[in-house]
């Protein structure tokens, strides 16, 4: 075979003794073919030096997208909260869904919500419903820490993406906010504003839901501080033997004012990094004013008007990116649990604000 000619699908098919369509399906990892056949043909194509024509691939992808817009294929958005819509009352989760729904519509897909707590909806029943409706793209989102076991589906039939860290299994590609870097950014900006003693106050459920990345980022930045300025994070409520605090995740309250006062008196933070509902009631009870008595940085900033300093987490981008990655998997026929799961992190955006004014000198 001349070395200056591109190896084609027909060349590979002829060598393998199969139809060119079979080779095409194998190279797209289509589940219609047995795994053994796919692996054999892909290995042969690689041995022969076959590479896809990028212009042809782009054309095929374009045609697929145009066809998808006419057919409006469906993606499943799976949640597992205490109630069907309970996740809508929790920070971030409504925006995850909104971002996913908007991007799905832009790409010609429908996004249908499935609540795993639905009466009678066993894993087997869900698998049957998805199969009957021809749904092969799944987004696992808004899974409470205390709800349910590992989702038992015939994963070889699905492409799936997870938003946030739960459920931990199966090990799927994941898109989430970069809580570690968000905490680091908040510390860095506080130092830039002239603060030296920086404290973190975080609800234990929210800390665990982010796989402890809040404290990971905070403690990472502390390593660059003088030891005298390092303040241990205040994680509340205290962990109990029965882990009952997990049930508070969907509606966390504020930190106990007594524990908060003891932490303040002992460590004398100049600025607090937290979520306003966690600390504002306690600050009010203790007659402490922001920023006169202590500065405050919001880690879950929503109002970017300048009143409050903090980091806006780009939740809608997380949802949109989950759809983009999922539809890419569908186009490439990357079904099943990935051999090497990949985490994609979305960065936060810092906003200056009056709650954390720059200090003179």
* CA radius of gyration: 25 Å
| Annotation field: number of helices | 12
Helix content: 25-40%
Structural class by SSE content: alpha/beta
- Describe the strand arrangement of the main beta sheet, using strand numbers: 2-1-3-4-5-11
Number of domains: 3
- Mind describing the biggest β-sheet? 6 strands, parallel
Give an overview of the whole structure.
With 361 residues, the chain is α/β, with parallel strands linked by helices. The chain has 3 domains: 9-52, 434 Repressor (Amino-terminal Domain); 73-177 and 317-347, Response regulator (Rossmann fold, 3-Layer(aba) Sandwich); 179-313, Rossmann fold (3-Layer(aba) Sandwich). The protein is built from 12 helices and 12 strands. The protein has a 6-stranded parallel β-sheet, with helices on one face. Helix 1 (9-16) packs across helix 3.
Give the helix/strand layout.
Layout: H1 9-16, H2 20-27, H3 35-48, H4 54-71, E1 74-80, H5 93-106, E2 110-115, H6 123-133, E3 137-143, E4 159-163, E5 173-177, H7 179-192, E6 198-203, H8 204-209, H9 213-222, E7 234-236, H10 257-267, E8 271-274, H11 276-285, E9 295-298, E10 309-313, H12 315-332, E11 343-346, E12 348-351
Parallel strand pairs: 1-2, 1-3, 3-4, 4-5, 5-11, 6-7, 6-8, 8-9, 9-10
Antiparallel strand pairs: 10-12
Helix pairs in contact: 1-2, 1-3, 2-3, 5-12, 7-9
């Amino acid at each position: 075979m001349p070395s200056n000619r591109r190896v084609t699908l027909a060349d590979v098919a002829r060598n393998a003794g199969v139809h060119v369509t079979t080779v095409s399906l194998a190279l797209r990892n289509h589940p219609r073919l047995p795994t053994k056949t796919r692996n054999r043909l892909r290995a042969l194509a690689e041995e022969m030096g076959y590479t896809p024509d990028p212009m042809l691939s782009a054309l095929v992808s374009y045609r697929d997208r145009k066809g998808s817009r006419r057919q409006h294929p469906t993606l499943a958005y799976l949640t597992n909260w205490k109630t069907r819509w309970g996740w809508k009352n929790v920070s971030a989760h409504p925006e995850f869904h909104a971002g996913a729904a908007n991007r799905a519509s832009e790409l010609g897909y429908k996004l249908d919500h499935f609540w795993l707590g639905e009466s009678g909806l066993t894993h087997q029943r869900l698998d049957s419903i998805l199969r009957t409706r021809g749904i092969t793209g799944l987004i696992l989102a808004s899974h409470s820490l205390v709800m349910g076991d590992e989702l038992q589906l015939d994963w070889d039939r699905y492409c799936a993406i997870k938003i946030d860290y739960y459920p931990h299994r199966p090990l799927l590609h994941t898109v989430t906010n970069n809580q570690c870097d968000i905490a680091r950014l908040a510390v860095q900006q506080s130092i830039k504003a002239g603060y030296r003693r920086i404290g973190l106050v975080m609800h234990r459920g929210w800390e665990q839901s982010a796989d402890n990345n809040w404290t990971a980022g905070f403690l990472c930045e502390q390593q660059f501080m003088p030891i005298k300025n390092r303040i241990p994070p205040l994680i509340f409520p205290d962990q109990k033997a029965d882990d009952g605090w997990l049930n508070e995740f969907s509606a966390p309250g504020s930190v106990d004012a007594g524990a908060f006062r003891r932490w303040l008196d002992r460590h004398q933070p100049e600025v607090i990094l937290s979520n306003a509902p966690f600390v504002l009631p306690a600050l009010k009870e203790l007659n402490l004013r922001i920023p006169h008595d202590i500065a405050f940085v919001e880690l879950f900033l929503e109002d970017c008007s300048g009143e409050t300093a903090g980091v806006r987490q780009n939740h809608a981008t997380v949802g949109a990116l989950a759809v983009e990655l999922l539809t890419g998997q569908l186009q490439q026929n990357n079904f099943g649990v990935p051999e090497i799961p990949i985490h994609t992190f979305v960065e936060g955006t810092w906003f200056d604000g009056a709650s954390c004014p720059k200090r003179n000198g």
